[in-house]
């Protein structure tokens, strides 16, 4: 790479770092066209509520335990999201003799209302398409009451219509008539696309038959907790209580739909057995101490690099500074929910970045000792250290991925920040540090070998 390209690359990097600094600290530069995105803090830093529920699976076959718990988790997570909690954590745990649901609500201000919402029974219902005349009446009524006060609205004739769904109306067919054991995922033998097979009990089959007979060519929508999950069109009258849902969804989406149908049809009773509150004061103290530890560790690393590697160590410090800026901006943009464990993963990734620089500089010194020219030694130092850097970071990345997919919430936060840090640190060591060192090729400073 020519020096001109090196300078151009560094100009781009420093410009991006400048923008990243404004993204991280908007109060300093105050550029109006840079979005003001706050960091998302986890339960241990922001404070909030930690809830543990015990699920009653006594009326469910053991073979359906996993499916029932996953369906319950999906519905509870949707409820919490509707409640407005940022980055909630909802996960299942299997304890001795019991199945539990753990819910973590960071920054929640009204835990009592959240507990009430979570404890509600999931509700599955089927809705039919309204006639166009009814739809228009409801839409007109909504427009008529728009912008009016509550007292003014109640003076309007048939104002209750404005509260109705203009497109669908409820039917008596709900999840209580669905045979959850007969609800399953299948595949169309002709197209290979996933389909969902439904089976109603005797009473539900009669209701379903009547509904399909009266609504051929219309939509029969399926709702869980008031949210539409499928809107199939009735093709013909369906007898025998059997039905199937087809649509443009993936296998994973179909599996989730089956889980939700099972959970809606056979709601799993849950009981709150533990509630813990984490105060924001404790979270603020933890965050302050973590940041202090991270800054001290970063400065100690930079000092070590300068003492042992002189100019390369100083350049590595500049590259690490840019690395930290890029990482923090990525945490805002992705966004990543920061916890104490996540901050630990980020600090560890700084060590990984330094490790790559140490390998490069050590190899670079060996090449210089053999009497090679500065530019050749630099090129060979990076080339010969790359396999060790690649293998070391790749193995750590594999372990981080395993922790992310199989670990619990805090472990996942640690693994995620560590993985992002490893990827960015490799870019920092291989490209930024190398470009900074290439600036000195062909200068007097490159001949002062004691500095290298």
The name CATH uses for the topology of the domain at 3-41 and 279-451 is Multidrug efflux transporter AcrB transmembrane fold
Average pLDDT works out at 83
What is the succession of H and E elements?
Answer: HHEHEHEEHEHHEEEHEEEHEHHEHHH
The N- to C-terminal Cα distance equals 21 Å
> For the largest beta sheet, what order do the strands appear in spatially?
3-4-2-12
Cα radius of gyration in angstroms: 30 Å
- Total strands: the figure is 13
Derived from helix and strand composition plus strand pairing, the structural class reads alpha+beta
CATH architecture annotation of the domain at 3-41 and 279-451: Up-down Bundle
Largest β-sheet summary: 4 strands, antiparallel
Please indicate the percent range of residues in DSSP E strands (runs of 2 or more): 15-25%
Account of the protein in words:
- The chain is α+β, with helices and mostly antiparallel strands and 452 residues long.
- It is built from 14 helices and 13 strands.
- The protein has helices at 3-24, 26-29, 43-46, 65-83, 111-118, 132-145, 150-154, 202-214, 251-265, 280-309, 311-333, 340-369, 374-406, 409-438; strands at residues 40-41, 48-55, 89-95, 98-106, 124-129, 168-174, 184-187, 194-199, 220-224, 227-230, 242-246, 270-278, 337-338.
- Strands 3-4-2-12 form a four-stranded antiparallel sheet. The chain has a four-stranded antiparallel sheet with strand order 6-5-9-10. The chain has a three-stranded antiparallel sheet with strand order 7-8-11, with helices on one face.
